C-alpha cells in the first residue's frame, strides 16, 4: 500500500524570511482553507452560513467561520477554515441547487497571506494599482487586482492607519513568486522606524 502524501504549504520555504521582516510589517502565511466558487442569480436571496450574499461590488462579509467575497454580478467565493473542502462544496451546492445556482470546490486554487502593520498599505501600493487609501479601501472592501504582477484577491480586514490588515488570496503556483516580491518590497524599511 502506498504511503499517504502530505500536503506541504507552498510558502514553507519563505516562512523564516517572512518572520524576519522589519518593524511595522507582518506577513504571515495563512493555513489551508476550504474555498468554493459559486454562481447564482443575486435576486435569489440565498443566505450562506448565516449571511446574505454581498451584492455591492468589491465587498466581502463574514459568513460563519469564513467569508463571502463578491467576485462578479453573479459570482462569489466562500471560504471556511473549519470545513473540509468537499463538505463545503456539498453544503453550498445544497443551498444553491433549488434556486438554479452551482458551486465548485476551488480549494487547491489559492493560498492566503495576511499582511499587516503600519507600513502594510505602503508595501502593497508598490505593486498594486488600486487606491488603498483608508478612506477608500475600507474594511469589508475587496478587489481582484494584481500585486507585483500576480493576480490576487485583496481583502481589507482592518483599516486603522497604525495597524492596517489585509488578506491576499493568490494562486498557489504564484505564492512563492509573491513571497519573494513582498520580501523585496519590504527591503527599504529595514533600517527605518514605522510612521503612521
What do you see in this structure?
The protein is an alpha+beta fold and 196 residues long. It has helices at 15-19, 85-96, 120-125, 175-185, and strands spanning 26-29, 34-39, 47-48, 51-52, 60-63, 66-72, 75-80, 102-105, 110-117, 142-147, 150-158, 164-171. The chain has 2 domains: 12-31 and 109-189, Probable tRNA modification gtpase trme, domain 1 (Gyrase A, domain 2); 34-105, Alpha-Beta Plaits (2-Layer Sandwich). The chain has 4 helices and 12 strands. The strands form 3 sheets. It has a 5-stranded antiparallel sheet with strand order 1-9-12-11-10. A hairpin with a 2-residue loop joins strand 6 and strand 7. The protein is globular, with a radius of gyration of 18 Å.
Strand content: 25-35%
In N-to-C order, the SSE pattern is: HEEEEEEEHEEHEEEH
Could you name the CATH homologous superfamily of the largest domain? Probable tRNA modification gtpase trme, domain 1
Head-to-tail CA distance between termini: 57 Å
CATH architecture of the largest domain: 2-Layer Sandwich
> How large, in whole angstroms, is the Cα Rg?
18 Å
Main CATH class of the largest domain = Alpha Beta
The CATH topology of the largest domain, please?
Gyrase A, domain 2
Sheet with the most strands: spatial strand order: 1-9-12-11-10
Helix % is: 10-25%
The helix-and-strand class reads: alpha+beta
Low-confidence regions = none
> How many domains is the backbone divided into?
2
How many individual β-strands?
Answer: 12
Main beta-sheet annotation: 5 strands, antiparallel
